[in-house]
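Structure first, sequence second, as always.
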């Protein structure tokens, strides 16, 4: 039996009407039902929607030329992924009743200009709990734990906590046995009858931030630390749905905070006129390490130019470093490049002046900071427990005339030697405890 053209056309029209009606019904149900009826997993849609809005919000904090630059856009995307990954690790693993030291910022999770010599880890704790720390002290310049709590400026704070990353515990100050093993109890008050090593916790501390600072990556040994809460049963029961959902809903806010915290810092330095010159960086409000003095400023160089950064060497210094940071405040790749230098890696000259050269091309001097393809960014330095904290002088010179401005006895580093230095540097960094 044949079907007429008009009959076939009529059937197609009816089919189109049915599809349209079905679409309208489903759309109406979605609109009326709301997230509670259509969301498969509570909290998931909110996570996706908030993350979807984050690229535009982050780019909006940058100058227009960076916002419209495909290279800068992709680097912002990488920054967001790094912030999300770091926040996701805490979402999955941070538990104040069953804590562990989880990886924080660093070479892969490059958020907030991590120091190249520092491995950062964090353990959430429940305010008021009693905790035991034990392990091996290692042999680093500094292995220090700071208490993190609400800042006096936080909404709802009564001002009683000293703020972020204060009340420090230096592992090298702890008594240890002949093998370097320590065992210390942490609590707001010393338990009655307890005679062992004890560190007072502020009752509002909710996180412990561990900084492991090394000046000699190949020789110094990182600590090994175990943490446990001892005033509750050891078992960990299945987390409730409400607890898991609360964690999920916190994730985008954590990600946004980390991604946008310093993303416009280089732009601010430019606006303030600190281009190829340095200023004091005050980090008291954001939890800088106690006794550490910072300086920073934008560098802006052509391929045939160099910056000479020089300062009188402090007579005594526990630690010092200088690093390079990109325009969105990520530390330049110090793993594959010499974009950071500490007191072991960069020596002062015979006149006791520390000179560091910033350039895109290898100038053949020991104290070279490699811009690694970034023609502009930020120079940031640290003096830690030093008897003086000079703001270095900065001089821009033609790369071809660099030697005119350096001491005559400045050593020459050949291309072959430089490659060997970088390979040894990379291997030493890999051999540290990161995860």
């Amino acid at each position: 039996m044949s079907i007429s053209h008009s009959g076939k056309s009529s059937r197609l029209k009816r089919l189109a009407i049915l599809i349209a009606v079905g679409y309208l019904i489903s759309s109406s149900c979605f609109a009326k039902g709301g997230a509670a009826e259509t969301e498969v997993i509570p909290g998931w849609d909110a996570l996706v929607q908030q993350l979807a809005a984050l690229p535009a919000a982050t780019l909006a904090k940058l100058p227009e030329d960076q916002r419209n630059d495909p290279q800068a856009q992709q680097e912002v995307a990488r920054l967001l992924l790094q912030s999300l990954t770091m926040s996701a690790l805490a979402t999955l693993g941070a538990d104040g009743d069953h804590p562990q030291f989880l990886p924080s910022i660093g070479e892969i999770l490059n958020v907030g200009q991590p120091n190249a010599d520092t491995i950062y880890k964090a353990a959430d704790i429940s305010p008021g709990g009693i905790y035991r720390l034990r392990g091996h002290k290692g042999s680093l310049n500094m292995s220090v734990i700071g208490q993190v709590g609400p800042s006096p400026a936080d909404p709802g704070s009564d001002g009683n906590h000293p703020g972020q990353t204060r009340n420090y515990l230096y592992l090298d100050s702890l008594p240890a046995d002949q093998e370097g093993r320590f065992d210390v109890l942490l609590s707001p008050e010393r338990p009655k009858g307890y005679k062992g090593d004890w560190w007072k916790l502020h009752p509002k501390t909710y996180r412990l931030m561990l900084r492991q600072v090394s000046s000699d990556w190949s020789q110094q040994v990182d600590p090994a630390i175990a943490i446990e809460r001892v005033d509750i049963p050891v078992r960990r029961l299945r987390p409730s749905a409400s607890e898991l959902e609360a964690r999920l809903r916190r994730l985008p806010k954590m990600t946004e905070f980390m991604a946008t915290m310093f993303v416009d810092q280089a732009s601010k330095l430019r606006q303030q006129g600190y281009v190829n010159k340095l200023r004091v960086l005050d980090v008291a409000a954001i939890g800088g390490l106690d006794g550490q003095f910072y300086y920073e400023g934008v560098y802006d160089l052509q391929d045939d130019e160099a910056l000479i950064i020089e300062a009188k060497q402090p007579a005594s210094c526990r630690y010092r470093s200088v690093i390079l940071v990109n325009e969105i405040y990520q530390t330049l790749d110090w793993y594959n490049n010499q974009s950071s230098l500490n007191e072991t890696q960069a020596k002062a000259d015979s006149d006791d002046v520390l000179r560091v050269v910033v350039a895109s091309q290898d100038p053949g001097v020991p104290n070279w900071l490699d811009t690694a393809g970034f023609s502009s960014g930020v120079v940031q330095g640290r003096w830690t427990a030093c008897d003086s904290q000079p703001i270095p002088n900065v001089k821009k010179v033609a790369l071809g005339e660099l030697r005119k401005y350096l001491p005559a006895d400045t050593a020459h580093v050949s291309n072959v030697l430089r490659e060997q230095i970088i390979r040894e540097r990379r291997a030493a960094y890999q051999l540290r405890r990161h995860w």
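Margin note: The helical segments are 5-38, 44-59, 64-67, 70-93, 241-260, 265-271, 415-430.
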